Amino acid sequence: MTPIVGSSDPPPNPDPALAARGLPDYSALLAAELAAAAAETTGSTPSSLGVGELILSARELTGSSQRTLASRAGTSQGAVTAIETGNRLPTIRSLMRLVEAAGLELVVGLRKPGAEVPIVIGALVPNEADGLADYVPIRALSPFDGPLDR
Fold first, then answer.
1. pTM for this structure?
2. Count of structural domains within the chain
């Protein structure tokens, strides 16, 4: 595991079962890595893995194997491999199922081209009642912010 810049030991996991297995708090690690990447990045370069990098990250952050993640998501290990290697483009439903199987939520957002910070960000959460995805805002523009073309 690559240590976080300026950190010698990963933070302990707040989940007692995961802490007992010696797994660190991956959400804190991810937050620190994202903050460091945001500080370094002046523009974003697309990944050659495409959206598969997202699934690979979710799996690695939770310490899951492809087989375990596939089983939890109700798919095959081969399907997870195809997505992670960029050989298959999953649907939003498949992405949500895989991310949920990793114990995470799929977060989406909007930003102006070339901007570093998204304008609107929210999570896609499965709705058990209708089987569709509900969008739950995390950060949205206020009507007082004015139009985007400023």
1. 0.63
2. 1
